[in-house]
Amino acid sequence: MIYTVTFNPSLDYVVQIDNMELGQINRTKKENIYPGGKGNNVSVILSNLGLESRALGFKAGFTGKVMDDMLRAYGCQTDFILLPEGNSRINVKIKADTESEINGQGPVIEKEALIRLYAKLQELEPGDILVLAGSIPDTLPENVYEQIMERMEHTGVHVVVDATGELLKRVLKYHPFLIKPNNHELGDLFGTTLYTEEEIIMYAQKLQKMGAVNVLVSMAEKGALLLAEDGQVRKMRPPKGTVVNSVGAGDSMVAGFLAGYLNTGDYEKALELGTAAGSATAFVSWLASKEEIVRYLVRPAIEYGL
Ligand SMILES: Nc1ncnc2c1ncn2[C@@H]1O[C@H](COP(=O)(O)OP(=O)(O)O)[C@@H](O)[C@H]1O
Ligand SMILES: O=P(O)(O)OC[C@H]1O[C@](O)(COP(=O)(O)O)[C@@H](O)[C@@H]1O
């Protein structure tokens, strides 16, 4: 079974605005509400690609209830811990001439709730996959992912981490199966800006030396670089298309990569399916469907086990 964990899930309120002006009343042209959060997005795309997963994490208040109900309606299994106070956040995504985002703080997660999550994770079995994705609320210590990975050590559970900064750095010593920083996040980890592919490969190799098994660096419209455990560096250019909403493109790439790898055991195909899923999501208004993803595959869908 694949489990995704989203500490700070959301409702994503996506608005389209013509001529956005700060300091003025702006009227939307279109608005939609989706269940958000990186682990949740991974679960939705896995479900779209026919793989079962269970979305774990924390929910609170009426927004948390709607988020959970929506995920179930999209075919995902969910098992969120209900927090006693507050509301799950509403993240605002503004699609104007440029894309802007306002991501909320989220409810407080007390120690008791955290212990309940750890107890759930004890039930995972060898061969299971655990995806830890997204930020954590400020009220939690930055070693939370590290604590989970410590508990998962020697259990036979493969852990995927899509996070930034300290949260990511601290888990490397536990050998996550996959990490997926984007090129900016990769540079930030080392306090630098990366301009060339050679630089990106060099810094991704550092992450492998620090413990990551596979490093997938996404580069938005420039595609992705995969440094796999077999020592090979693979590069993939994305298909061409018009960006409609790139929120969730990174999460879709993680889900597509996992689906490709689990279905075929082939890193090349995993990278291809990950890229198709990331780009397909960027080219539609929300997370892409299977049909939308298959459109961008370089080989027949059956070769990816779809
Ligand atoms: N503008 C785009 N055009 C084509 N593909 C895109 C675009 N933006 C994202 N993608 C696809 O989605 C993947 C992940 O996007 P990226 O923006 O790098 O991730 P994140 O959302 O984590 O920052 C890319 O590697 C690419 O395949
Ligand atoms: O946990 P974070 O880093 O605050 O991000 C949460 C936001 O990220 C998303 O999961 C999208 O992530 P990406 O665009 O990076 O793939 C949104 O659904 C959500 O609002």
TrEMBL record:
It comes from the Bacteria. Residues 8-282 form the Carbohydrate kinase PfkB domain. Pathway: Carbohydrate metabolism; D-tagatose 6-phosphate degradation; D-glyceraldehyde 3-phosphate and glycerone phosphate from D-tagatose 6-phosphate: step 1/2. The keyword Nucleotide-binding applies. Coiled coil: none annotated. SUPFAM superfamilies: Ribokinase-like. InterPro entries: 1-PFruKinase (IPR022463), Carboh/pur_kinase_PfkB_CS (IPR002173), PfkB_dom (IPR011611), Ribokinase-like (IPR029056), Tagatose/fructose_Pkinase (IPR017583). Its EC number is 2.7.1.144. Keywords: ATP-binding, Kinase, Lactose metabolism, Nucleotide-binding, Transferase. It catalyses: beta-D-fructose 1-phosphate + ATP = beta-D-fructose 1,6-bisphosphate + ADP + H(+); D-tagatofuranose 6-phosphate + ATP = D-tagatofuranose 1,6-bisphosphate + ADP + H(+). One of its GO terms (molecular function) is 1-phosphofructokinase activity. Catalyzes the ATP-dependent phosphorylation of fructose-l-phosphate to fructose-l,6-bisphosphate. Belongs to the carbohydrate kinase PfkB family. LacC subfamily. This is Tagatose-6-phosphate kinase. It comes from Faecalicatena acetigenes. The gene is pfkB.
